[in-house]
């Protein structure tokens, strides 16, 4: 879900010069975020309640859609009326904000609370620039999960597939049984998640690293992934284009569809529907050697010299990282706590699978946002969605366009 910030940042320094906060109340924090689905709303309420109990006042500014929320936050900063904090995805999305001195650091709290020992190295690196910490990492999301309707699979006589060949065979059986094989929300970022699930399922960590870290699409793995991705078009229902991810998850929850590829935030929707992850809805990562593509959410702190706002920002950093807040938020959000010192043994079966996948460092792969810029990601999204929505486009043509987009990013 890349976004080009160049125009928004053009007058950033002028906006920051006028950035004295209008909020005078001590430790009042306006937080812009896009946690708007039922499960997400329940999760963010945990943070709000914990912050209020710690002596702050959470002012909720929920804006649907990540790109919309980020753009709104940046516009507020540029306009001289910054929010206290904003949600971003872990990765390179906030690099231009840092370059234009639009964010406060969280170094003081990170040092006091010893983040260096409790936050995984990959996520420490993701929020640190030039030795300074610019964001509060709040969770670890696995992005390439496969979700399955237990009832739908049983009706079609399908077992949990272990690789993509088995998945395609299962899709045919579901189709024959009158069940939509693949639930997909036809939005660019969802189509990208599906493609990356195919890529990692086919070629594992080596193929993923070759493509996104080395910018190389040569070889059998990418070619096979491109072919399989094209074949999946026939298994999606006509209502797919433009559909939100949570509405798509409802198709799994109700048994109308067999499979969906989505991050583990989907578990929040299961909780809202009073379902048990791993029971009514199955969860697994497709591939002979499952790869855990890690992403997450972080909270950035808008640049301000207002003492009350700085106090509120510090309280946010402390509160959101407490063990209780981490466990309760992530249970509802469907993600794993960012703290490695927390006992997750009482979390759901899918979370336990996630922890097991992550035990081998070789399985831990950073999400695309951590490997490419927002501009590059936007270009790749355009290439992927054009291929998905153009049945006549051949896999080799897609490969050439993908390669050109990667080359342009170097």
From TrEMBL:
Family matches, as InterPro entries: Bact_solute-bd_prot1, SBP
Cellular compartment(s):
Periplasm
Output the superkingdom of the source species.
Bacteria
Principal localization reads periplasm
Known Gene3D superfamilies for this protein? Periplasmic binding protein-like II
Q: Does the keyword Signal apply?
A: yes
Name the keywords, alphabetized. Answer: Signal, Transport
Question: Coiled coil where?
Answer: none
User: Which N-terminal residues, if any, form the signal peptide?
Assistant: 1-24
Task: Give the family per the record.
Answer: Belongs to the bacterial solute-binding protein 1 family.
**Reported function:** Part of a binding-protein-dependent transport system for a sugar.
Name of the protein this chain belongs to: Probable sugar-binding periplasmic protein
């Amino acid at each position: 879900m890349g976004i080009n910030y160049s125009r928004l940042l053009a007058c950033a320094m002028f906006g920051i010069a006028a950035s004295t906060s209008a909020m005078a109340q001590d430790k009042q924090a306006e937080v812009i975020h896009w946690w708007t689905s039922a499960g997400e709303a329940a999760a963010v309420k945990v943070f709000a309640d914990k912050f209020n109990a710690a002596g702050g006042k959470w002012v909720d500014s929920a804006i649907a859609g990540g790109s919309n929320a980020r753009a709104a936050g940046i516009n507020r900063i540029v306009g001289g009326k910054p929010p206290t904090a904003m949600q971003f995805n872990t990765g390179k999305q906030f690099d231009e904000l840092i370059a234009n001195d639009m964010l406060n650091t969280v170094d003081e709290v990170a040092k006091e609370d010893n983040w260096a020992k409790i936050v995984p190295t990959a996520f420490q690196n993701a929020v640190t620039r030039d030795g300074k910490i610019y964001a509060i990492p709040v969770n670890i999301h696995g992005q390439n999960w496969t979700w399955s309707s237990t009832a739908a699979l049983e009706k079609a006589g399908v077992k949990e597939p272990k690789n993509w060949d088995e998945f395609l065979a299962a899709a045919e059986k579901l189709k024959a049984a009158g069940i939509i094989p693949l639930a997909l929300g036809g939005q660019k970022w969802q189509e990208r998640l599906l493609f990356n699930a195919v890529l990692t399922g086919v070629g594992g960590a080596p193929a993923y690293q070759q493509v996104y870290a080395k910018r190389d699409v040569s070889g059998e793995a990418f070619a096979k992934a491109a072919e399989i991705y094209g074949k999946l078009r026939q298994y999606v229902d006509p209502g797919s284009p433009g559909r939100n991810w949570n509405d798509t998850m409802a198709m799994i929850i109700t048994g109308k569809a067999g499979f969906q590829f989505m991050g583990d935030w989907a578990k929040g929707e299961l909780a809202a529907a009073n379902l048990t992850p791993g029971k009514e809805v199955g969860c697994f990562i497709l591939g002979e050697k499952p790869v855990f593509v890690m992403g997450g959410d972080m909270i950035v702190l808008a640049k301000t010299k207002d003492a009350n706002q700085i106090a509120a920002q510090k309280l946010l950093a402390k509160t959101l990282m407490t063990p209780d807040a981490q466990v309760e938020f992530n249970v509802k959000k469907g993600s794993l706590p960012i703290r490695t010192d927390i006992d997750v043994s009482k979390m759901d079966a899918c979370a336990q699978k996630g922890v097991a996948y992550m035990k081998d460092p070789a399985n831990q792969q950073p999400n695309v946002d951590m490997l490419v810029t927002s501009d590059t990601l936007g270009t790749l999204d355009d290439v992927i969605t054009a291929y998905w929505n153009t049945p006549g486009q051949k896999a080799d043509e897609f490969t050439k366009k993908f390669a050109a987009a990667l080359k342009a990013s170097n």
